[in-house]
Amino acid sequence: MKLGIQSLQFTSSRERPMAEQFEDALESLRYADEGGFDWISASQHWMSAPTVWPQPFPWISHMAAEFKNIGFMTQMLVLPLHNAVDVAEQFATIDHLSRGRLILGCANGYRELELTAAGVSRKDRTSRVEEGIALMKALWSGRPVEFEGRWWNVQGGQMGYSPYRQPHPPIVLAAQSIGATKRAARIAEGVFYGPQASFGEIEPLIELYRRTAEEHERQPGIIGAGRAIMIADSREAALRSAHAYAEKTMKMYSGWDMQEPGMASLRLEGDLDEWAIIGWPQDCVEQILKAHAVGLNHITLTAYNLPSDQQGRIEYVQRLAEEVVQPVKRALGEAVLSTPASGA
């Protein structure tokens, strides 16, 4: 089981200068780098006010220069907004800067505001993702590319270098539906289910993903999900945080018109344990082990009751590393990297 941490909650204020937030985030996330986490995720949205979403490529590049152990994931890059040639070049550059510690997570996107700004419609999204991935993989091969598609036309173009990681960094696709799950099994190296999908909804999709990958003679690879985590000294306190998170998140989804036909429900109702990892650290360990048992091998943890003060955030990440991540890895017989963070 590989466990990551989402960086978004560490840089989410509209009141403080972003430069200060980045510095504080580095100080907090250093304990993830040296405490056993496997990656740090950076997300993407354009024009996201009133929420704050720093762009992933420069942020990951900066973190990669600071942290030497941990990997990084774009979770998720909204691929239809971008030129696939540019993404291929940018990502290969960061792959060298990080010495191969990258996962490229991509999504179709759903916000009309973003898609319209990029000159893309909802009906174009899937074809741009599929064609973009095919073109990026061709460019990453290091050979001259002859590619004529609906969106891009490359005649004899060749990148000057290949990615550090060969044959290329793994690509995972966001999914919350049958169609997206099948697509990930066909063209990517993994699938990542959104934090809104319940464990009950994910389990049959995992089986579908494995079956589809086998039909296409591909290895299943990364089978991941994003999960809200709320650790506290009592389950009651964690439940209060979970309810507050659900209310805030549903308001955002409603404003962004995220729910689409065929997707897992975004209502975040019913048993909170179905979509959040909550309670004492030991409760969280047990819930992650259950998720592993149903087929997940990667989980990004998003701390939705992250303290507002800097020292509290540092202690929260330390606690996650020492009382959740490391026990999960020991329970599964995996090696645990745990070195004292600077200043600890």
Q: Would you write up a description of this structure?
A:
The protein is of the alpha/beta class and 344 residues long. It has one domain (2-331): Alpha-Beta Barrel (TIM Barrel), CATH 3.20.20. 43% of the residues lie in helices and 18% in strands. It has ten helices and eleven strands. It has helices at residues 18-33, 56-66, 84-97, 112-117, 125-140, 178-187, 199-215, 235-256, 281-293, 310-331; strands spanning 2-6, 39-42, 71-78, 102-107, 145-148, 153-157, 171-175, 190-193, 222-231, 276-279, 298-303. The strands form two sheets. The chain has an eight-stranded parallel beta barrel, surrounded by eight helices. The protein has a two-stranded antiparallel sheet with strand order 5-6. Helix 7 (199-215) links the parallel strand 8 (190-193) and strand 9. The longest helix has 22 residues, at 235-256. The chain is globular and about 60 Å long. The two termini are 26 Å apart. Mean pLDDT is 91; it is low at 339-344.
- What is the topology, as strand order, of the major beta sheet? 1-2-3-4-7-8-9-11
Order of helices and strands: EHEHEHEHHEEEHEHEHEHEH
Strand content: 15-25%
CATH superfamily: Luciferase-like domain
How many structural domains can be distinguished in the coordinates?
1
Report the biggest beta sheet as strand number plus sense, adding barrel if it closes.
8 strands, parallel, barrel
C-alpha geometry: globular
Structural features:
single chain; 344 residues; TIM Barrel; 11 strands; 43% helix; disordered C terminus
Secondary structure blueprint with pairings:
Elements lengths: L1 E5 L11 H16 L5 E4 L13 H11 L4 E8 L5 H14 L4 E6 L4 H6 L7 H16 L4 E4 L4 E5 L13 E5 L2 H10 L2 E4 L5 H17 L6 E10 L3 H22 L19 E4 L1 H13 L4 E6 L6 H22 L13
